[in-house]
């Protein structure tokens, strides 16, 4: 398996633009997580899905952020409009809910977002 | 006060040394994770544990639920172990309720 795949790896955009980050989880994993990492705050959970259903989005900073998981193999995190304080590395992770690796999270390589 | 505290924040060691990184937490948890973040940014899950001890190669993780404390040990450290090690706890019985520590930056010198 190729692991969790995120795109793009780097995104540079101007304040006010819409940004869409994409994630393909590992096939067969039931849970998907979106994280944000900054120097000041470290890693923070934004939202997670079980079986494509959003379970907890309390970490989403504000209404400018939205996430969807239309099917088991794809998820998006959208920021509209983007602001400079959204600059961070965004990670996607997936995990199985059964088996030996139950609840162990596998991370993508991250998307480094810079909002100018 | 952060609910997950790691110590030390930074650690420099000589190759071959035994290394210990500590994690203390203040909430009731269902599981604790140790993650490794490489200098290139990639994150790898090392351990998930809820009691006792786990070992994988030169890495050992222990947890004491009563004392709300976990340690990550690296035996015979090597420069390739240089990374940031992050402790995270699951609380409230939910897989997604994760609180992260700020990480410990380890540098192992040859």
Topology:
The complex is a heterodimer of chains A (116) and B (110).
Chain A: E1 5-7, E2 10-13, E3 19-24, E4 31-38, E5 42-50, E6 53-56, E7 65-71, E8 74-79, E9 88-95, E10 106-107, E11 111-115
Parallel strand pairs in A: 2-11
Antiparallel strand pairs in A: 1-3, 3-8, 4-5, 4-9, 5-6, 7-8, 9-10, 9-11
Chain B: E1 4-7, E2 10-14, E3 19-25, E4 29-37, E5 43-49, E6 52-56, E7 59-64, E8 69-74, E9 83-91, E10 98-100, E11 104-109
Parallel strand pairs in B: 2-11
Antiparallel strand pairs in B: 1-3, 3-8, 4-5, 4-9, 6-7, 7-8, 9-10, 9-11
Describe this structure as you would to a colleague.
The complex is a heterodimer of chains A (116) and B (110). Chain A has 116 residues and is mainly beta. In chain A, a hairpin with a 3-residue loop joins strand 4 and strand 5. In chain A, strands 2, 4, 5, 6, 9, 10 and 11 form a 7-stranded mixed sheet that branches. Chain A has no helices and 11 strands. Helices cover 0% and strands 53% of the residues of chain A. Chain B starts with a strand and ends with a strand. The radius of gyration of chain B is 13 Å and the shape is globular. The mean pLDDT of chain B is 92. In chain B, a hairpin with a 5-residue loop joins strand 4 and strand 5. In chain B, the strands form 2 sheets. In chain B, strands 2, 4, 5, 9, 10 and 11 form a 6-stranded mixed sheet that branches. In chain B, strands 1-3-8-7-6 form a 5-stranded antiparallel sheet, with no helix packed on it. Chain B has 110 residues and is mainly beta.
């Amino acid at each position: 398996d190729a692991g969790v795949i995120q795109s793009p790896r780097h995104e540079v955009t101007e304040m006010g633009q819409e940004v869409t980050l994409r994630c393909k989880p590992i096939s067969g994993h039931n849970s998907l997580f979106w994280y944000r990492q900054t120097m000041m705050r470290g890693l923070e959970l934004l939202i997670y899905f079980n079986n494509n259903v959003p379970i907890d989005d309390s970490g989403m900073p504000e209404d400018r952020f939205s996430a969807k998981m239309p099917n088991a193999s794809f998820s998006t995190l959208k920021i509209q409009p983007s602001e400079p304080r959204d600059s961070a590395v965004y990670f996607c992770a997936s995990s199985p809910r059964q088996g030996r690796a139950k609840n162990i999270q596998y991370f993508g390589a991250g998307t480094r977002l810079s909002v100018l | 006060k952060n609910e997950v505290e790691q110590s030390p924040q930074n650690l420099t060691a000589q190759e071959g040394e035994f290394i210990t990184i500590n994690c203390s937490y203040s909430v009731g948890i269902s599981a604790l994770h140790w993650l490794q973040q490489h200098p290139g940014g990639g994150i790898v899950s090392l351990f998930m544990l809820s009691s006792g001890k786990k070992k994988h190669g030169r890495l050992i993780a222990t947890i004491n639920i009563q004392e709300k404390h976990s340690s990550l040990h690296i035996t015979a450290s090597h420069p390739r172990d240089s990374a940031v090690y992050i402790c995270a706890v699951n609380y409230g019985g939910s897989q997604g309720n994760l609180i992260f520590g700020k990480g410990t930056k380890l540098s192992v010198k040859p």
